[in-house]
Write a structure and sequence with these properties.
Blueprint (H helix, E strand, L loop, with lengths): L6 H6 L6 E6 L2 E6 H4 L6 H7 L14 E3 L6 H10 L11 H10 L3 H7 L23 H24 L8 E13 L15 E6 H8 L3 E2 L11 E7 L4 H10 L3 E13 L7 E13 L1
Parallel strand pairs: 1-3
Antiparallel strand pairs: 1-2, 4-5, 4-9, 5-7, 6-7, 8-9
Helix pairs in contact: 5-6
C-alpha cells in the first residue's frame, strides 16, 4: 500500500532563516529575521511573517528584493532595530525618508520625521529643524535664541533688499569641453563639445537665475540658504547660461581653465584636447 506524499505540504511550511539578506534598490543589507518583524503591521512584518519565502521576489543571487531607495533604507533598518531615529547633522533628505517610512507603513517614524512648526519660528523650514530626540530644556533655549536671530536676520535682509528685491552673491559656472584638431590645424575642429554645465553657489540664487532649467536631481531637498556644487543645467549652451546670468544682474569677475592633449588614434596625427573651465559671476 502506497504512503501519501506529504512533500508538497512540507514545502509550503518552509520558514525563514535567522539571518536574511536583502537587496534594496541594488544595495545589499544583512539583518536578523527578528529585526524585520519587530514592528507589527509594517510592510516588512507582513512580508516576512505572513508569507513563506516562495511568495517573495528575489534577485539573481537569491536575496529578497525590495524595489525602493537603497540609500535611505539604512535608516529604516536602524529604526526597526530599536525604534529610535538617529540622523546625521544637516540631513538633507528628511522629506524623502518620510516618504519611505510611509511606504513601509511605519507611522511612528513618520511622526518623528514630520516637520515641526512653532509659533516662535514661523520662518523656519524643514531642513532647519533639530532632531526629535533633542528635547532637553537647553536645546529648547538654543532653538528659541536661534529663532530670534533668524527672524532678525530675515527682517534685516528684507530692509536692505527692499530697493530691488535681489540679494548679492556669487555663482560659478563650470564645464568640461573637448575638440579634435587635425595635423595642419586646418581640420574642421569640433569646438567646445559640452556634455554638462555645472552650477555652484547658494541654492536660492541658483534657483532664482535658472528656474526650471536647473537640474537638482543630484542634490534634492537642499535648503535655500545652503550652498551646493552638485546642480547642473538641463541645456548645454554656455551663451544661454550667460544670458540668464546677465538678465539677473550678474557680471563675470573671473575665469580659469586647464587643458590636456592626447592623440586620437595611433594611425593619425589628430589630437583631442580636453579642458575644464570655470566662470565666476557676481551680483552686488
Amino acid at each position: 500500500m502506497a504512503l501519501p506524499d506529504n512533500s508538497s505540504g512540507l514545502s509550503e511550511e518552509l520558514s525563514f532563516p535567522e539571518i536574511i539578506e536583502l537587496n534594496v534598490g541594488g544595495q545589499v543589507y544583512i539583518t536578523r529575521y527578528s529585526t524585520l518583524i519587530s514592528v507589527p503591521d509594517s510592510l516588512l512584518w507582513e512580508m516576512f511573517s505572513q508569507k513563506n519565502p516562495k511568495g517573495l521576489a528575489r534577485d539573481t543571487k537569491g536575496r529578497f528584493f525590495v524595489d525602493r531607495d537603497g540609500f535611505l533604507f539604512r535608516y529604516i533598518l536602524d529604526y526597526m532595530r530599536d525604534q529610535q531615529l538617529v540622523l546625521p547633522d544637516h540631513f538633507p533628505e528628511r522629506g524623502r525618508l518620510q516618504r519611505e517610512a510611509e511606504y513601509f507603513n511605519l507611522p511612528e517614524l513618520v511622526k518623528l520625521l514630520a516637520p515641526k512648526i512653532s509659533k516662535q519660528n514661523s520662518l523656519g523650514d524643514e531642513g532647519c529643524q533639530s532632531d526629535p530626540e533633542d528635547s532637553s530644556p537647553s536645546a529648547d533655549t538654543a532653538r528659541n535664541l536661534t529663532s530670534l536671530g533668524a527672524t532678525a536676520a530675515a527682517c534685516s535682509s528684507l530692509m536692505s533688499g527692499a530697493g530691488d528685491g535681489k540679494r548679492s552673491g556669487f555663482i560659478t559656472i563650470g564645464y568640461r569641453g573637448s575638440y579634435t584638431l587635425g595635423r595642419d590645424s586646418q581640420t574642421d575642429a569640433k569646438f567646445r563639445r559640452v556634455a554638462r554645465i555645472m552650477v555652484c553657489g547658494k541654492t536660492s540664487l541658483a534657483k532664482e537665475v535658472f528656474g526650471e532649467t536647473l537640474n537638482e536631481s543630484r542634490d534634492p531637498d537642499r535648503p535655500p540658504e545652503r550652498y551646493t556644487s552638485r546642480y547642473y543645467l538641463k541645456f548645454t549652451f554656455l551663451e544661454q547660461a550667460f544670458d540668464r546670468l546677465a538678465d539677473a544682474g550678474f557680471h563675470m569677475v573671473a575665469c580659469n581653465s586647464t587643458g590636456t592633449c592626447a592623440f586620437a588614434h595611433d594611425q593619425t596625427d589628430d589630437k583631442i584636447w580636453t579642458s575644464y573651465t570655470e566662470y565666476v559671476f557676481y551680483r552686488e
